[in-house]
Amino acid sequence: MKFKPEKENVPLYVFSVAIGIVIIIVVGQTAAMTIAYLTGHEITVTDRTADRSSMYIPTASHKRIQTRQISLTVSDFDLIYSSNLTIPITAELARQFVGNDVSQYFDYRNNSRYAKNAYLDMMNTGKDGYRKTCLLFTDEPPETKKDLTDFDKFTFESQPIAIDCIAFITHKDNPVDSITAEQARKIYSGKITNWKKVGGKNKKIIFYQRGGLYRGSSLYETMSGLVMNGAPMAESPESYYAYKQDKGGGFSRHHYIAEYENRTNSIGYANLYYINTLYNREDIKVLKIDGVSPDNENLISGAYPFTDTYYAVTIDSDDENFLKMRELRDYLLTDEGQRIIEMSGLCPVRALEG
Questions:
Q1: Across-strand partners of 270?
Q2: Cα angle vertex 182, ends 55, 291, to 5°?
Q3: What whole-number distance in Å separates Cα of residue 31 and Cα of residue 272?
Q4: Which of 255, 218, 217 is nearest to 236 (CA)?
Q5: Are 202 and 194 in contact (CB under 8 A)?
Q6: What is the reported pTM?
Q7: For 105-128, what is the mean pLDDT?
């Protein structure tokens, strides 16, 4: 006859401790969520530039001007990879050649913050797991990717096709018309906090940042590189943290950034495309930097300090897809192609007559 040991009862204090831990976690998370909302600036409209579809907006000057010097079909757009801030170029090409509804030509494959992916696609076009990328629009020319495996096996061709910049905006009634490059850096590093320090009224500077759910965005990174020279930027007062429950039941913290609100003590930044679309309004003015405005003449001459260049990159190959994309690249350097660049909201690489 086997002896069955009596079942051991779990001491009551063990249950008490477990329940206490659960209560502490729930209370702690609730408190953290409450503090996040109360200490942040709760916003109703998040940064519009964080929505990639905002790069499909046509400029006010848009009209169809292409004269069939080349032909582009819907399937040709599958061969183009637009790194993030160059999407307006591809969007305008789509409007010119295949119709106005350009959003259907974009998915995760042909717009990305990471040009590296496109270079890998170009070098491996046709192989399993890689898409056919035969033309890349980017601010990262081939010489920045020499560390990629097998890079030396290919002959990359790169041509500058457009100029962009970081520009600063404020309300038209703000008496400040120009700030220095150093003042721009100090405003966004939090060292200058009052408009009086830059020749304006005795008002607190409300500066607006860029980004989506995460701190980084192509616009934020461009600002960091061109203006801040890598120095850290202060956190915008127009943002807040919120804790959201994830699939696992836990809570994670998300950082939200407000859309630019045009007040007389506001300052925001954008690239040229957004200056010509989202912020092309009568109540918004673009600040000069060191007395220089970010117009096409000053961008082309290099007089304006915060400029960036976009390149059309392809590979020297006899493949018919690469040949077609090289034809498109060459077309973008013609007068008509450069006018399409201008119509996209960016700046051509050379002055155009008329």
A1: 167
A2: 75
A3: 42
A4: 255
A5: yes
A6: 0.83
A7: 69
